[in-house]
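Feature request, filed as a ticket because there's no other form

It would be nice if the structure record came with a short human-readable summary line next to the C-alpha cells. Right now we just get the raw output. Example of a typical job, pasted below so the devs can see what we mean:
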Amino acid sequence: MMSKFFLSVLLLCAAASLDALPYIPGCPLHESCVRALRQETQARRRALERRETPDVEGRTSGVYTGFQMDLGDFNDSANDYINLRPSLAYLNSLNSIDLFFCAFYTFSTADPGISPVTDSQSLPPVHRGGLEANVAYSFDIAEAFALTFALDNQNMFVFNPDESSLNGNDKALAYAALEPSLRLAYTLDFGEASILNSLPFHYTDDSSLDYALSLMLNTDGGLGFTLNLEWWNLWAAEKTETGEAASPFEYGQTEVVVHFWRGKFFASLAATADSSFTRFGIEPYAAYTLGRFTLFASVLVNNMGAQPDDTTMRVNLIQGKRDVTSVIPSIGVKYWL
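Raw output as currently delivered:
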C-alpha cells in the first residue's frame, strides 16, 4: 500500500490568541523550519511515490540535526537579544506508520518575550527546551481515498523559570499539548486534496480543548495550499490558575500557508489573522539543499494591524510587553546524519 505521509501545519500554538500568547522567539512550537521540513518532506515523498518528478533531491527519512539563530527584533531597538537553538530529530516511515520525534534546546541572551521597561533594566537570559513526538497510521479506504490517524504531543520547558516574569517564563512547563487528528485525503489527477480535523488538548495549568480544521491542496508541480481554521475553548477548566473565569468558546484565528518545492529549493509563506481580522502576522521561509545540508532563512512579521486600547497598552507597558510590530529574522542549517 502506498505510504501516506502525515503533515501537521498547526504550529502556531492554538492554545491562545495573538493577544494572549505573543510570539516568543526560541519556542520550538512557533518554529517555521519544522513546518517547512514536513511540507518539503511530504512533497519529496509524493514525487518518489508517483515517479513523475525526475529532479527529486534530499532525504525523506532518518536522523537530522539542526541549528537556528534568531537575530532579535529589528523593530524594537530596546529588545536586543539573540537566540541560539540546536535541535535533533528523527523522521521515518515504516510501511503505513509515520514517525517524527524532535528535541530542541534554546539559549536566549535576554528574555525575548518582553522589552525592558526602563533603559537601565537588564533582562535575564532564558534557557528553554522542547520535545515533540508524532505518530501517524495511514490506510487506503478506496482507490482514491486514504485515512490517516495521528497523535501529536508537544511540550516546552523553561529550565530557569523567573517568578517575576509575566509572559510564561515563570513556569517550568510553559506549554504542553496532546493533539489527536483524522485526515481524509483524495488523490487527484494533478495532486492531492485533503481535510484534517484535530482536537488539541492543552494540559498545562490552564487546561482546555480546542478544535482545528485544515483544508489542503498539493499539486504534482510542487505547489501547495493550506487553510487552517481554529476554534478555542471547546472545553476549558472552570477557572484559570489566576482564579479568573475561563474564556468562552470562540473562533480563534485563521492561517493560510502557500508553499512551493522544486528539486533542491523549497519556499513557503504563512499568514495569520485573529478572529476579527484586525491583527495579522506573516512569515516567509526559504530553504536550499546541498547534499546532506539544508540552509534556510525566515522572517517573522507579527502583531501588525490594530493596536490595543489605551488601558491595555498601559498594562502592557508595566508588564514589559510590546505593542509594536515585531520583525524577527532567523537563519539556520539542517544536516542529515
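Something like this underneath would help us a lot:
Residues 181 and 198 are 4 Å apart (CA to CA).
Confidence is low (pLDDT under 50) at residues 1-34, 50-56.
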